[in-house]
Amino acid sequence: MTSQISRRPAGAKQPPSLRAIVALAAGKSAAGATRLIGRGGGTAITGMVARKIDPRILDKLVRIPGVPVVAITGSNGKTTTARFAAALLRGEGISVFHNSAGANLVQGVTSLAVSCANLVGDIPGGVLVVEVDEGALPRVAPETLPRALLVTDLFRDQLDRYGEIYAVAEAIESVAEGLAPEAALIVNADDPMVATMADKRQGRRVTFGLSLKRSTDKITRAADNIRCPRCRADLTYRYVYLSHMGDYSCPACGFTRPRLDVAVTALEVVSLDRTRCEIQTPTGRITLDIPQSGVHIAYDAAGAVAIMVGLGLSLDHAVESMASVGPAFGRLEKIDAGGKTVVLAFAKNPTSYNTTLKALATEGEPRQLLIAASNTLVDGEDFGWLWDVDFESMAPLIERALVTGTRADELANRLHYAGVPSGRLRVVEDRAAALTEALAVLPAGERLVVLSGYTPLIELRNEMRRRGWTGRYWAV
C-alpha cells in the first residue's frame, strides 16, 4: 500500500497576513492566561479568540499548506478511538498533534492547530488527529480536508441539539462523499447506517467490525437502528455485539453486512482495566492487551487499526502502542481519593450508559454509587432517554446510591422504577456535598463508582482536584 500521510504539495509559501499573526498571538495568549488563572487548558478559548480575529485561521494553518489530518466522528467512541489512533501513529515514528482533552467543536479543532503552529503559521511535520463532534464535522472538514475520516457509529444523542439520527447521518455522509479521491473513508460495518455511508464514492474505503461466533449483547429498546438502510424492512441478526451493531442481513432485499477489512476475531473483557482481543488485518493478525474495559473498546481499537490500514501504514509496533493507552478522562478512570478509590464513568446516552454498566458488571459494580445528571446546553435538556437505559440490571447490585445534579429528581425517579429501594437512595443536589457524603459513608475496602454526564462529571472531578486528589481533567 502507498501511504497517504505525507503533506500535500502546496504552492509557493506565502507570508502570513497581519491578521493571521495577530490571531495566532492572541489565541496563544488567551490559552496561557486561562491556564495561569486555573480556568481551563485553553482547549476551546484559543480557537474562539483566534477565529474572532481571523475566521479563516484554521483554513490557513491546515488546508492551504496541506497538513495531513485524521478525523474521527460519530456518536460514541470518538475520544478513545482518537487516543488509540494517535498512539498507533506515534508507535510508527510519526509526530502527532491531538485534541486529547476532547474539545471537538470547531473552536476546539482550531485551538489544536493554533497551539501547535508557530507565530508565522507553520505547523511542523506531523499529523493532526482530531476528534470531531458529529454536528461540527460539516464546518471542520472543509477547513481541514481530512486525509482519513472514520465514522464510529450513530446513536440517539442530545436530540434537542442534533435532531434524529437520520439528519446526523445525512450531514456526515455529505462530508464523506466530498472527500478527496486519495482520502480514506473508514466505516463501522456493524452499524447498518454507517456501513452504507457514501458507498458509491470513488476512493479508498476500509470497513471494520467484530467477527465473533457469539453475541455479546441483545436487541433492546435502546437499539436505535434495526431497519435495512436500503428498503427499511426489519433486519435479522445472526449475532448482536453492541446495541444495534452486529452481523445482520435483510430478509426482504438481501442486503447484508459488508465484508470486514479489519475484524475483531476474538474478544475477552477481563476486568475493569483490561480487554484482550485479536484483530485480523489485510496484512496479518495482531493480539492486543489493552488497559481499558468493554466490548466498545474492541470497536475503538479496530477503528484505530483500520485508520492505519486506510493510510497505508504499518502496524509493526501496534501491540506495544495499544498496551500503553489508559482510559481518557471519565472513561472508567480510577482516582485515589485520600486512600479511597473512585471510579469515574462518563455516560451520555442509552448506549454509552449500557456499555459502561456492562463493563462495571465484570467486577460486580456498582455497589456504592454516586450518579449525576444535569440539563445544561452541553449535556442536553431532554432526559426521556433515561427510560431506555438498563438500570434494572444494576439495581440488585446497589447497596447505596446518592443522586446529584440539576436533574437529580428525574434520575432518582428512574432508579426507583428500576428497582433501587428507597432506603438505599438519597438525593443530594449539590455536587461537592454529594461527593463528601458518598465518600464519608463508603465502607472500608469498597470503591465509589461515579456514573455521570459530562458537566457534573467535570464538576465532581474539579472538586477532587481542589482536594488534591488529581490533576486537571484536560491533562489526562
In CATH, what is the class of the largest domain? Alpha Beta
| Uncertain spans | none
CATH topology of the largest domain, anyone?
UDP-N-acetylmuramoyl-L-alanine:D-glutamate ligase
User: What gap, in angstroms, lies between the N and C termini?
Assistant: 34 Å
| Residues in helix, % | 25-40%
Q: Would you identify the CATH architecture of the largest domain?
A: 3-Layer(aba) Sandwich
- For the secondary structure, the number of strands is 17
Mean of pLDDT:
93
What's the CATH superfamily of the largest domain, by name?
Answer: Mur-like, catalytic domain
Tell me about the biggest sheet? 9 strands, mixed
Which strand order does the major sheet show? Answer: 2-3-1-4-5-6-9-10-11
Salient structural properties:
2 domains, globular, alpha/beta, 476 residues, 34% helix, single chain, Protein-Tyrosine Phosphatase, Chain A, UDP-N-acetylmuramoyl-L-alanine:D-glutamate ligase, 17 strands, six-stranded mixed sheet
Describe this protein's structure.
The protein is 34% helix and 21% strand. It has 476 residues and is α/β, with parallel strands linked by helices. It has 2 domains: 18-323, 3-Layer(aba) Sandwich (UDP-N-acetylmuramoyl-L-alanine:D-glutamate ligase); 331-475, Protein-Tyrosine Phosphatase, Chain A. It has a 9-stranded mixed beta sheet, with helices on both faces. It has a 6-stranded mixed beta sheet with strand order 12-13-17-14-15-16, with helices on both faces. A two-stranded antiparallel sheet has the order 7-8. A hairpin with a 2-residue loop joins β12 and β13. α2 (45-53) packs across α5 and α3 crosses α5. The mean pLDDT is 93.
